[in-house]
């Protein structure tokens, strides 16, 4: 995947920070760029499958609603010592700081990382 420009990164961050989406007609103003450059930025983000572009009418004017795509979680990040993170499916009501199951899992992860070095 081609690296993003600063403007593309800024646009993506703005879109990701608004779960309900950002109107393309507003994005170029927020980025302080002209609408043509904004269209090119949006096209690159759509083509790289980072965002969705949905036709939208705002005050009777056609524009596009831009929403960030959710990326899949790497399943390797949920495993330590071949064990799934204990929070998945856990029904106990605890805090992250006081969960012995989570602490044991994190220690296992740290031990694995240390022994791999």
TrEMBL record:
B-block binding subunit of TFIIIC domain boundaries: 17-69
Transmembrane portions of the chain: none
Annotated Pfam families: B-block_TFIIIC
Entry-linked Gene3D superfamilies: Winged helix-like DNA-binding domain superfamily/Winged helix DNA-binding domain
Source taxon at top rank: Archaea
Official protein name in the record: Putative transcriptional regulator, AsnC family
